[in-house]
Write a structure and sequence with these properties.
By secondary structure, the chain is of the alpha/beta class. About 40% of the residues lie in helices and about 20% in strands.
Length: about 300
């Protein structure tokens, strides 16, 4: 099923639509982001296919198709209200939410998913739609909470820096977004070891000295990006704190939080504990970028951090 404009696609984004306020917040965000990147928007709603679920729903199960069509039509109207003339198509699919969205987005520029609290039915059906899509998608995934903090302040992008291993992907996306949005960029690195080890390190080194050394190392990595984006204001911040806590705290005054999803093997990605926590708790949109194999990086990576300190 589709509703299209006459404008040819030069690339596309996918947004998952479920008829909830959180889903419509994702549509608004996706429409604006598609406009910014000059690409089309594909709206997808996935209906369950398993017969036991339809039996449980009874007569309501026969109305799923009508509900799906109405949901997609409402989402399409909303997208075009946000960005008139936006090329939009709608896709009503049947199957597992995660697999169907990931398959549709195989060649997408990015996927947008609204965040809502998972119910027991959600978890039984899909294992958690948000985590599943972020873990399995080959493209960037953006999580949009139903509401984001707004304030009379300059726009701010926060890049969650873990190590130099995937800094090229992180900085490439963060600087491009900050430049397009006219935003300030904050590179945030949080480090804290498990309690016993952290106490031992804290007794041997000065926290301020360690933070300063890591700020200097990050600053060296940023050199080429600063040259390419001289008008982007940038701040480096290193904190002795658990990463989830630091990133969620930063999200309260950010317009976007950007993370990298690391590679395990040559092409398989894995969603780590920090990313899972941030996706559940962040108060601003979160952009999760898949890492690239080393032979595709535009900037050679340095060595990874060791015991909480970056090494050159």
């Amino acid at each position: 099923m589709g509703m299209t404009t006459t404008t040819a696609e030069t690339g596309f984004a996918v947004v998952a639509v479920d008829g909830t306020e959180e889903g419509y917040a994702a549509v608004r965000f996706a429409a604006d982001e598609a406009r910014r990147q000059g690409i089309a928007l594909r709206l997808v709603h996935v209906m369950p296919s398993d017969l036991p679920l339809r039996s449980i729903l009874g007569p309501a199960g026969r109305d799923l198709g009508g509900y799906a069509s109405e949901t997609l039509a409402s989402a399409a109207r909303l997208a075009i209200d946000v960005v008139p003339e936006l090329p939009v198509t709608t896709h009503r699919l049947v199957g597992g939410r995660v697999s169907e969205v990931v398959d549709l987005a195989d060649a997408a520029r990015f996927v947008v998913v609204g965040r809502r609290r998972a119910t027991a039915l959600d978890l039984a059906w899909s294992g958690g739609t948000l985590d599943g899509i972020v873990s399995r998608a080959r493209c960037t995934v953006m999580m949009v909470p139903s509401t984001s903090a707004s304030a009379e302040r300059p726009a701010r992008i926060v890049a969650g820096f873990k190590s130099s291993e995937h800094s090229a992907e992180l900085f490439g996306a963060a600087f491009a977004a900050a430049d397009d949005l006219g935003a300030q960029l904050e590179v945030l690195h949080a480090w804290k070891l498990p309690s016993g080890y952290d106490d031992m390190i804290a007794r041997r080194v000065s926290e301020a000295t360690t933070n300063r050394k890591q700020e200097d190392a990050i600053g060296d990595l940023l050199g080429p990006w600063r040259e390419s984006y001289p008008h982007v204001p940038i701040r480096i911040r290193v904190v002795h704190q658990y990463p989830v806590h630091a990133l969620v705290e930063a999200s309260r005054e950010a317009d976007r939080l950007i993370l990298v999803k690391p590679l395990h093997g040559s092409v398989v990605h894995h969603l780590g504990r920090t990313a899972r926590g941030v996706l559940r708790l962040a108060e601003c949109p979160v952009e999760v970028i898949p890492a690239e194999p080393h032979d595709q990086l535009t900037v050679p990576p340095l060595e990874v951090e060791q015991q909480g300190a970056l090494v050159r």
